[in-house]
Known about the structure:
Radius of gyration of chain A: 28 Å
Structural class of chain B: mainly alpha
Order of helices and strands of chain B: HHEHHHHHHHH
CATH class of the largest domain in chain A: Mainly Alpha
Order of helices and strands of chain A: HEHHHHHHEEHHH
Structural class of chain A: mainly alpha
Number of domains of chain A: 3
Shape of chain B: extended
CATH superfamily of the largest domain in chain A: Cytochrome c-like domain
Shape of chain A: elongated
CATH superfamily of the domain at 76-244 in chain B: Cytochrome Bc1 Complex, Chain C
Strand content of chain B: under 5%
Oligomer: heterotrimer
Helix content of chain A: 55-70%
Largest sheet of chain A: 2 strands, antiparallel
CATH class of the domain at 76-244 in chain B: Mainly Alpha
Distance between the termini of chain A: 60 Å
Largest sheet of chain B: none
Low-confidence stretches of chain B: none
Number of helices of chain A: 10
CATH topology of the domain at 76-244 in chain B: Cytochrome Bc1 Complex, Chain C
Amino acid sequence: MNRQEKEEYLREYALLKAQGKPFFPYAVAKDSIMAVIVMAVIITMSIVLGAELGPKADPTTTTYVPRPEWYFFFLFELLRIIKPPELVPLATIGIPTICMILMILVPFVDRSPERRPERRPIATTFGIFVIAAMAYLTYLGANAGSPNEIEREPPAQIAAAGGQELAHWEAGKQVTAQSGCLACHKIGENGNDGPGPPLTEIGARLPKEALARTLINPTAPMPSFQDLPPEKFDALVDFLATLK
Amino acid sequence: MKLKLPAPPIPEQLKPAPRRPGERKPSASDTLKEGGTSAVAWVDERTSLSGGARWMMFRKVPKGTNWFYTLGSATMFAFLNQAMTGVFLAMYYDPSPTNAYESTRFITNEAFLGEFVRGMHKWGSTVMVILIFLHMGRTFFFGAYKYPRELNWVVGAILLILTMVMSFTGYLLPFDQRSYWATIVGVNINGTGPLVGPYLSDFLRAGPDFGATTLSRFYAIHMLLIPGLIAALIGAHLYLVAKLGTTAPPWLKAESDPELRKESK
Amino acid sequence: MAKDRRQTKSKYTADRNIPGAFEGETVTRRRFMTGTTHVAGAVAASAFALPALGFALGPVFEKVERRWEAVGAPDDFADDTYIPKVITETPGIGEVGKTTVYVRRHNESIDGPQKDEYDGFIAISTRCMHLGCPVRFVPASERFICPCHGGVYDFQGKVDGGPPVRPLDRFYTRIRDGQVEIGPRFSVNSELRRFSPRDPGQELDGIGQYVYPSRPTIRKLPNT
């Protein structure tokens, strides 16, 4: 912004200000109503949602699945999607620091006099991109399932059959969850995307016999599961075959 | 017979002036009003605050000011809610690794209105984070960070970072599983900084591992260090807002009224 | 007048247009008083700031004593699977000072020849080397799995996938009075060479060990 533009802005602003109303009570009235709304929201949330207190801190746990508060989901997801170990400092310190510095420097980067969002295409696009990126990371972070559980409903025909068949399916689901498959494979929202291929639709790609063969004689680094007790192994294979 | 007390011997100039004919006897509310006015006048005579208050409250806000402009004050209001509920939570809370969870459980389950106040603090933080992001978005899309308000954007950006630090140090305090592992991860994130990282994480933990004073360290940061900074920066932010004025919506143009143009010169 | 300010060499502040000048004030007197203000102010401020800072930084350099804790007889442990054991890492703070370690017997076909007396049992920490989440050993797949950001380790604790920067930390072990004892923690690089303990997220391969210096007061055992 050069000097002339600055003066032009100040003149225009003085005019707009002269045409305005006094802060008290006109603006303050809106602020106060907003404050009432804010408090109403906080109190409603407090009454409806309460203040839950989780189980006591236990450093000896090996089963707890730590998740942050929702407003840190985007940072949490950033740590999940940056996989190469050599890039870890970038994900933990680098990117957040760069973002904070960029945020502070916004007015020194964008110094044009234009203020209307539709006439500042770069700034507006950038702003929308940042919001979209944070919202997407937050969404992914919120849905990141535990690698020790599978959230999946039984297929319609098995659910309909019920009884023995359903129990067998549930047992297979449990064996799959507890055998560490999700450390390297993804099933739905649970598990890690890699190094192994996703198993969400493995039953459609491989027949049952091929699944059993792979589990007994896999390619490294996947371990062999032939030491599993036979009934658990069968449940595992049958469960995987239903993933379509 | 009515007994009349003798008038006290007060000097002539201190005696109340006799009422003028036709004047009403002052009512109690008149006296009260007069007393209030004179108390305010007394303070103002010694502080000259009325000028500042007039400058702050009766400054004009530009034409077109709408509901988007309440987000900033709403954020500040959420902060006040956090400060107030936080002070009362501090009366029950004990930041030691052996008692922290128990004291939080006491607040939640046993203290009168405990869960309500803790809920207000907990959900107040969520509301404050949302509001501060909305406020920032408004400022960004309205181009309100441009000349002459650059410095106010910088102050606001620092306030946003401090708010996130508050949220982070805050949710360690209940000392449940989520709190504990968040502390561990948060401290280790600081530890990945090259060269200084290891010392920084030691400083945050007060030792090589989570120890007896780690929690009280985070507590002091959460309730003394950062709130002090936030309060001071809110003061600076508000001063700049009042001095520079809030922006008008960017698509608004002043009406070219020759009278007004003359006045503004 | 502004031009005069630089050109005049008068010794009086009034002649040089210095703000707040008064009758008879010399430039040297003004400088002396300004210097005194700054020095005294700095001394007073550091008088409270430095002790407070030192107080806060003190624990970084505090010495931590080495502890050994018995976890059971040598026959309790197999060489093809891990047994979880809870030990106390930081005494005096109750449950919070404890941690879980996975212990197994040294297995020559996997670990190679035994290095020294501290290598008879392998004790692996449950702290993920990405950012410190609690890992879990899954016997079926013989993997350590972290629930946070997707770290996976193999049977020896070496990184198998995900973001962890180095294999899982280990603990020294030894046999005393017929009991397996777990000692201090140490870190390992990708070739399982021992290093002084580091925090999670700090790489030890290449220049990592210099980029992330170890704590001056906590070292690995000498000659190991």
